[in-house]
Amino acid sequence: MFSKSSLRKVLFAASVACLLPASVMAQKGPQWLNKAVFYQIYPSSYMDTDGNGIGDLPGIISRLDYIKSVGVNAIWLNPIFESGWFDGGYDVIDFYKVDPRFGTNTDLVRLVDEAHKRGIKVCLDLVAGHTSDKCAWFKESSEADPNQRYSDYYIWTNEISQADKNEILKRHQQPNPQSSTIGRYVEADAPRAKYYEKNFFECQPALNYGFATPDPAHPWEQTVNAPGPRATRQELKNIMSFWMDKGVDGFRVDMAASLVKNDPDKKETIKLWNEMRSWMNNNYPQCILISEWSNPAQAIPAGFNIDFFIQFGIKGYPSLFFAKNTPWGERNSHPYCYFDRSGKGELKEFVDNFSDAYSRTKDLGYIALPSANHDFQRPNIGTRNSIDQLKVAMTFFLSMPGVPFIYYGDEIGMKYEVGLPSKEGSNERAGARTPMQWDNNATAGFSTCTPDKLYFPVDTENGKLTVATQEKDKNSLLNYVRSLIRLRQSSEALGNEGDWTLVSDVNKPYPMVYKRSKGNETYIVALNPSEKKVEADIANQGFQSAKIVSATGKGRYNVNKNGKDKVQLNAFSAIIVRVN
């Protein structure tokens, strides 16, 4: 007899099999994903070579040897296409052209070639759901003639409900209506029609992939198979082909769940991405898709190789890292986060939701738990601000299953800078987009410009939080991260595909102890991010011996053949233990 939970898993697997084409079911992705460790770069903030205070592609090329030295073997670049720069590059004007601030298409091809020489894959950011309102497609679509090439790439109407009109009014009562995400429609009064549907900000008109359940009373709501939506899908393939033909290894897809409208259960959106996956498998089998969906049980069966477990969607990440007195912590209901010095956080929300997503998808693709990203705060924030604390956090990120993503600068403990002015739509995200800190000069080695010309200011804590200083210190966070990646890559059990099981009591959250295993290898990872010494009894797993292979702070794992193992950890400590 099946238990209820087992039956649910069987039924879910059956439903996934029905949705996916055989080519998708047959593989989790190209072989290189098995060992992938990603490094996310916000290009405006990584390295400036022309002295204008903004990073560029030649700057990234000049730092590829450093990137390789960290131990990562794949890069994800935030948008580098020509943009209106209202939303940090996510308002794309031309998907086929590198923005002049970063360089040229040739610079991007050179970056890909140089990265490949070093064994590093390169993935771009694909803004699939919308363009800038400055895009030539949108301008043509807004014209009176509805029968031009791009006319139906967008969603236009002269009629919206009173509720939608109220949302427009509500949005324009905000201090900056362009920054508001309230409502679906924008009042344009263009020759084509009075309103268009947006995808996020007003300047980001939604591309038309059709409606899952078109309302017969709304003639502008086209089916997913209407000519306009089919043409938009083909354009998406054209964009990906253009760059993959130049050597790009895949894409992280922005707002991946947003494409098909009126699709509450995402069935049509899943079918759309299944189509893309099947096409990629046939034409670009070594390339990957990464989704900003944050619901792995939907995104991975949809055909994505990797889905993020992040600040929205399935709950769990905020309860780990967003303290109440920080910008993202204020948006969440938990009084303490787990990785907090107080030792008052909880694990249950994260463990319940991650365990469920992991069990549903581990044979289909990978979950990614990033150290941070361009949209939310870094680990170094508030009272989580010492190298010891950050080492414990990085132990977690680099010992969990799935594909790790290190946000640039987290390997040296760069701070989330509180209270920076908004630039290019950053709002409070500005604090996570400050320039990479290479050395202790006035611009942290990021640029030859004067400090007042920097994209955002830097704070190296008198050089402590720089690559130059940490390269020389064997106990630095940078060198600890390198050692964790080396250990991860040396072991299938600790790697992307090793099994994961929580072995500590979720209701006694400190320490957090989990098992990683594959084949004949087994490791125990134990974490204590609090300022208090902690210990736990663990049901004996049948181990005869234990050897610590990585440690920060002080800890012990004692094998007890009488039924209980014991874990003891000092404040701000983490250990990885090889057990037999």
CATH superfamily placement of the domain at 499-579:
Golgi alpha-mannosidase II
CATH class of the domain at 499-579: Mainly Beta
CATH topology of the domain at 499-579: Immunoglobulin-like
Helix content: 25-40%
By oligomeric state, this entry counts as single chain
Net shape: globular
Number of strands: 21
* Residue-averaged pLDDT: 94
Q: What value does the Rg take, in angstroms?
A: 24 Å
Distance between the termini: 33 Å
Largest β sheet strand count, sense and barrel closure: 8 strands, parallel
Total helical elements: 15
| SS strand fraction | 15-25%
Poorly predicted runs of 5 or more residues: 1-26
What strand line-up does the widest sheet have? 12-11-10-9-5-2-1-13
CATH architecture of the domain at 499-579: Sandwich
Label the structural class.
Answer: alpha/beta
Structural account:
The protein is of the alpha/beta class and 580 residues long. The protein has 15 helices and 21 strands. Helix 13 (387-397) packs parallel to helix 15. 26% of the residues lie in helices and 17% in strands. Strands 12-11-10-9-5-2-1-13 form an eight-stranded parallel β-sheet, with helices on one face. The chain has a five-stranded antiparallel β-sheet with strand order 14-15-16-21-18. Among the domains are: 136-206, Oligo-1,6-glucosidase, Domain 2 (Oligo-1,6-glucosidase, domain 2, Alpha-Beta Complex), CATH 3.90.400.10; 499-579, Golgi alpha-mannosidase II (Immunoglobulin-like), CATH 2.60.40.1180. It starts with a helix and ends with a strand. A hairpin with a 2-residue loop joins strand 15 and strand 16 (521-528).
